[in-house]
Amino acid sequence: MTRMKKCLLIMPLNFYSMASQMQAALKKCGYETTLCNDRYPNTTLTKIMWKIGITKALYQKTYSYIKNHFLQTNYDLCIIIKGYGVSTKLIDEIHKTCPVVIGYNFDSFAYNKRALKWYKRCDKFATFDYEDVVRYNLPLIELYSAIEILTPTEPKIYDLFVLQKVHSNRLKFLHKAITILNPQNAYIWLYESNRITAIKNFMHSPILYMKYSKYIHLTPMTYDKYSDYMRQSIFTLDYSHPKQSGITMRCFEALSCKTKIITNNTNVLNDGLFDDSTIICLEINKQYSLEHMENIKKQFKDISYTKNWQSRSINDFVNDLLKLQ
């Protein structure tokens, strides 16, 4: 019997179900995978410390924890995704137990500057961000959908499904979409990490926060429930951070569910899987003429499906990462 190769996967373990999905996909490729969070300890207090820049002790704690709990054995491969608490010192330590370290960023360097300090220490490093591909001469690896594709396709119940974590200008983008499109049957679930971020987000946009407060929850939606709502919706809302140019996982998940996308990211149209039959681009700060808004409304009311819907799976994503070796 062929020995399973050993992989150490360092990534945010609380980012939806991505870690367990990656673990399952790597198993199909012959890897027994050990999951490791990308920062320790991972508490509300330490998240605040990372945000405000009190990081020296946190880098050391992450280094010590991973070294003592995960680097006492050898691996064939280490994959680092995002790597919030990773340091050059840690990667040098990983190389003592692992011959190949692959890094991947599903943020941009403009948004996640910490990765700039260590990405060159990896044997290979890839990104989802179009601008970083050009600026840093990195390979592009698109994200994926892990939503199970059901046959036959579920009937569409909602004309718009919105699931968003509240931050940056997402409430502003949501409000603009709702104002222009006036959906008759929308399902909206907004999520706050904790009460501290809720206070911060309220202060950032108090009027919109109050307007949409009935949709705000302190618990995240489960992935299974999210998948169901995505399958049952004609459109979903995708907001790309202004400092990022990569295509979000939301877009690939929508595509796999035959759900159209309203997004602020015009780069989506650069990927061959998407076109204007599945995408409405809505720029958050642009003032639209009445004629243009009417055209957007017509697109929103068009429920026909002329696109040959293709999907990019997590297996495609993992295979692309493994090809970097």
UniProtKB/TrEMBL annotation:
<keyword id="KW-0732">Signal</keyword>
<feature type="signal peptide">
    <location>
        <begin position="1"/>
        <end position="24"/>
    </location>
</feature>
<protein>
    <recommendedName>
        <fullName>Glycosyltransferase</fullName>
    </recommendedName>
</protein>
